[in-house]
Design goal:
Length: 103
């Protein structure tokens, strides 16, 4: 919001985003990852072996410290689990957009 405000104030090119668009980004960015996380918790509770492997990897990589980008990028098992949950229980499974072609 702040960077967008800086972007739109004082320029006449109208390149900023609107409040409606901010709203869409906010909700699209909350609902979909939230649904993914809830399904991940459900799947991990059904597959305790996977839960154990994920826990071991996270403990090994972060050693009780807050997560950082370097550590997140080195994870192997957790992204596999997230991708599998996205495949099995997609939080968003359709496209509303339609391609219009000119003839
Ligand atoms: C695993 C995570 C996510 C998945 C599976 C996902 C999936 C999708 C899909 C399938 C669409 C297209 C919908 C359509 O055109 O009908 C979409 C659009 C969109 N998503 Fe996500 N999304 C995810 C995360 C996020 C996050 C974190 C944000 C924002 C921080 C976000 C913001 C948006 C926005 C703004 C659109 C609309 C784009 C446009 O108007 O063209 N999404 N998402």
């Amino acid at each position: 919001m702040e960077s967008n405000f800086i972007e739109i104030s004082g320029n006449t090119k109208n390149v900023g985003i609107t409040m409606d668009e901010c709203n869409i980004i906010y909700h699209a960015g909350q609902d979909v990852p939230l649904t993914l996380l809830v399904w991940t918790m459900i799947c991990l509770s059904m597959h305790q072996d996977g839960q154990q492997k994920a826990r071991e990897e996270v403990s090994q990589v972060f050693e009780g410290q807050p997560p950082d980008f370097e550590g997140l990028n080195s994870l192997k098992i957790v992204p596999m689990i997230l991708n599998e949950v996205l495949r099995l229980c997609p939080p968003w499974y359709y496209f509303k957009r339609e391609l219009l072609t000119r003839r």
